[in-house]
Design a protein that fits this description.
This protein has 2 domains: about 5-165 and about 350-365, 3-Layer(aba) Sandwich (Rossmann fold); about 165-345, 3-Layer(aba) Sandwich (Rossmann fold), CATH 3.40.50.2000. The longest helix has 18 residues, at about 330-345. Helix content is about 45%, strand content about 15%. It contains 14 helices and 13 strands. By secondary structure, the chain is an alpha/beta fold. The protein has a 7-stranded parallel beta sheet with strand order 3-2-1-4-5-6-7, with helices on both faces. Helix 3 crosses helix 4 and helix 7 crosses helix 10 (about 255-265).
Length: about 375
């Protein structure tokens, strides 16, 4: 049985981690011997074991970790690995080195922009990765970024957009009612929700500033933020200082995003940088109205006034304006959510994404 080795840096929940798990499970369903290598125990390792996949925990201890390469090379040979599929910068680099040493073909998926162009060494590394692996970007905007900012040739980048399980997010009135009851949301009360880890790149500080403007017009509006991270204490202090402490709820990590999306009246994303966020696609499938910053590949699915509202990044005023418009212009909002649903079904289904990756696997193995 052909083996596929999946590599990712983070062990916490997130879009890239969810996608990696989805692909690893699909490899298993296709009859491949699928295994996952991560750096530490956590949410990913728990899901890997629950899925019946083989787990390797092997931390990277240096920018070029020779003992790691030796250990994973030996594992790949023992388990007859025929394909390596990695995600994000450090693992993409080590996967490419491993591929060169072992002769095993390698797919390296890039999910976002992050810090790649900040240092010339990182730019050189990604050019090396592009020459010696099959580089995949999750959006056309991200591909253009890799061309413009990193200097990678266009023909070396393949775009395979993210996809989601549409049926999982199908709206159900009973789910909405139960979720809002659990959250303590009254009938007629506006619930605006964000999903994303509490990191600076997610722009939650701008969201809270926008929330204070919205709450001045809608005093009983509730802003719900699902995610975990080091900024929680700072964001709670900001909400208190803005006088909206009672309007903002920090839920921490949640594994019932489909329920939260159905409870929302508006989904909001305030990010400073993105690839093609899975949570945007999930909101589209949930028929939840969307207000989002115009960053990364988001404009490939959210067209202004057609499938959602795009606002300026790092602008609380623009974010508040978009939210107020989404709340007040209900007829247009209803039209947008239907168009968004049709788009996500036709272009970003899980089946479509898995089929494209399957074609790539068969081409390389």
């Amino acid at each position: 049985m052909a083996g596929v080795l999946n590599l990712i840096e983070s062990s916490g929940p997130g879009g890239a981690e969810n996608m990696m798990l989805t692909l690893a499970r699909h490899q298993q369903a296709l009859g491949y011997d699928s295994s996952v290598c991560i750096q530490r125990e956590g949410w990913v390792s728990n899901n890997v074991l629950e899925s019946g996949l083989e787990l390797i925990i092997k931390p990277l201890k240096s920018s070029i970790d020779i003992p790691w390469l030796k250990a994973i090379y030996q594992y790949a040979k023992r388990h007859e690995i025929k394909l390596i599929h990695s995600h994000e910068f450090a693992m993409n680099f080590h996967a490419t080195l491993l591929s060169r040493i072992s002769g095993i073909p390698c797919i390296t998926t890039v999910h976002g922009k992050k810090y790649y162009p900040d240092k010339w060494q990182r730019r050189l590394i990604y050019r090396y990765i592009s020459r010696h692996s099959n580089l995949v970007a999750v959006s056309y905007d991200l591909k253009q970024f890799l061309i413009d900012e990193i200097g990678i040739k266009s023909e070396r980048i393949e775009v395979l957009p993210n996809g989601i399980d549409i049926d999982k997010f199908k709206p159900q009135q009973s789910v909405r009612v139960d979720a809002r009851k659990e959250l303590g949301i009254k009938n007629g009360q506006i619930l605006i929700g964000a999903i994303g880890n509490l990191y600076p790149v997610k722009g939650h500080n701008y969201l809270l500033d926008a929330a204070s403007r919205v709450c001045s017009k809608h005093p009983d509006a509730v802003f719900m933020i699902a995610g975990r991270g080091g900024l929680e204490s700072d964001l709670k202090s900001q909400a208190k200082n803005l006088g909206i402490e009672s309007n903002v709820r920090f839920l921490g990590f949640r594994d019932d995003v489909h329920r939260l999306l159905q409870a929302m009246d508006v989904f909001v994303m305030s990010s400073l940088s993105e690839g093609l966020p899975v949570s945007i696609l999930e909101a589209m499938a949930s028929r939840t109205p969307i207000v989002t910053t115009d960053v990364g590949g988001i404009s490939e699915v959210i067209m202004q006034g057609k499938t959602g509202y795009l606002v300026l990044s790092q602008s609380a005023d623009s974010l508040a304006e978009g939210l107020m418009k989404c709340i007040s212009e209900q007829e247009l909002t209803n039209q947008m959510i239907e168009r968004a649903y049709e788009l996500v079904v036709s272009k970003h289904s899980l089946l479509s994404m898995l089929n494209e990756y399957e074609k790539l696997y068969k081409r390389l193995m």
